[in-house]
Each structure stands twice: as C-alpha cells, then as structure tokens.
Amino acid sequence: MDEFLHKALYVEETDEDIDFESAPSTGQEYLRRVIVESRKCEAVVVADMKGKKLKAQTVRYTTDSGCLPAPETFLPSKEWQQFQVSQFSCLRSRMAKHLARQKKQGIQIKPNINLPAGDKEKEWSVLCYGNPEDEEPSGTPPMLPIILSLNQFMVETLLEYNVQWLEETSFTQQRGQWLYALLAKLEKPLKPEMCSLIRTLARLCSTFRAKLTSTDDPLLAQLNLFICLVGRYFDQSDLADAMK
C-alpha cells in the first residue's frame, strides 16, 4: 500500500529496532512507530456482522400528532373554524396597518403602565395574572397599547412564558386572552422554536379540552380557538381538528 500513499512529512528511515514499551522521545521516533504499526494493519478490513450481535430496530414511525381526540360534540364546525381564522387574520392586518401609520408619523406607542424587562419572568406573571399570594389575584388584561408596544423579541419571550405557565397550572379565560393577543402580534413565517412552542400550546389545549365534561363549559370555545389557529392559521394542519 505504501506506493499509493503520498508522504505528508519526511521521516528518516532507520534499521534500529523500535521499543514499543517505552514512550517516544522525539517526533521522528513517534512517526516511525506510526508507520510500522500501520504496515501491520490489513489493507481491507471486513466487520464480522453476526446476527446475534445485531440489536432490534428501535426507531418507530408514528402519525400521532400528540393532540388528544375530543368527543364529537366538542369539535367545532368547518364554518366556525373558517370564521375564526378570518377574524384573526383581519385583526392582525389592522394591527399591522396601525403600527405602520404610527411609524410613518414618528409616533412611538407607549403603554400607560411600566412593563418589566424581558428576563423578569416573575414580574410578568404578576402583571398578567396577579400575585398568587393574594386572596383574589387580579392581573392586567392585554390592552392594545401594551401589545402594540412589544417588539418581536418580547412577544416571543412572553409566549414562551405563557406556554410554560400553562404547563404548570390550569387554563383560564384570562390566560386565553393573553395568549390570543400575543399570537396576534407573532410574525410569520415562524421561527423553528416558535413553531415548536405553538404546537405545544395546541397539544396542551387538546389535553385541557379532553378533561371537560360539558359542551356548556365556557372554556371550550377558547380551547377550540387555539387548536384552530395553530392548525389552520399557522399551518400546523396535523394538529387541527377535522373540518366537518
């Protein structure tokens, strides 16, 4: 094989025996050892693949999207889903036009309250939903000036906070209001991490929906709404409810 290999480094030839029991004392000696050892290797090596040593395939493919199925009576109609997507799209369009006009006129939108910094998760939780130590926690609703004043980084940060809080607690109408407002400001196309986040949101909503006991539950419409928006508006169709 040596005649087919180009030498990258010059190595002085020698007839001296190499003591492999001791450490090489020079770089030349180390390279000579490498050459001698490589000559002892077979030119072609074939692995002995014995069936008993092969492990069973562990990769499994599934088409399960992770959304829990809902009772037939809980599922929204095709018309309802189309209407909600249309309304949501119109809201986002109006918000975008309003922001463009304000920017053109040099007007900076400022909320009438001081907002916490992005890394102040606990302060945002108190602002949105009140202090849990209070007897009756009451937070701040997602008023338009607050939502319009948020840049995209803050929108994504607050969405991440809200989904995380939702994993740790229960769904409420107030949480639904904040989630809807933040989704309305979330820009498309989605970043991969935002895509993953809203998919988690849809799955959580399907879990909460599956625990409801009545079609009269006031949370049903909101839970259906988020599954619809994630699936139909944000193009995660594998998570959407069927069009019936």
TrEMBL record:
<dbReference type="InterPro" id="IPR035426">
    <property type="entry name" value="Gemin2/Brr1"/>
</dbReference>
<dbReference type="InterPro" id="IPR017364">
    <property type="entry name" value="GEMIN2"/>
</dbReference>
<comment type="function">
    <text>The SMN complex catalyzes the assembly of small nuclear ribonucleoproteins (snRNPs), the building blocks of the spliceosome, and thereby plays an important role in the splicing of cellular pre-mRNAs.</text>
</comment>
<protein>
    <recommendedName>
        <fullName>Gem-associated protein 2</fullName>
    </recommendedName>
</protein>
<dbReference type="GO" id="GO:0032797">
    <property type="term" value="C:SMN complex"/>
</dbReference>
<dbReference type="GO" id="GO:0000387">
    <property type="term" value="P:spliceosomal snRNP assembly"/>
</dbReference>
<keyword id="KW-0507">mRNA processing</keyword>
<comment type="subunit">
    <text>Part of the core SMN complex.</text>
</comment>
<comment type="similarity">
    <text>Belongs to the gemin-2 family.</text>
</comment>
<keyword id="KW-0963">Cytoplasm</keyword>
<dbReference type="GO" id="GO:0000245">
    <property type="term" value="P:spliceosomal complex assembly"/>
</dbReference>
<keyword id="KW-0508">mRNA splicing</keyword>
<dbReference type="Pfam" id="PF04938">
    <property type="entry name" value="SIP1"/>
</dbReference>
<dbReference type="GO" id="GO:0005681">
    <property type="term" value="C:spliceosomal complex"/>
</dbReference>
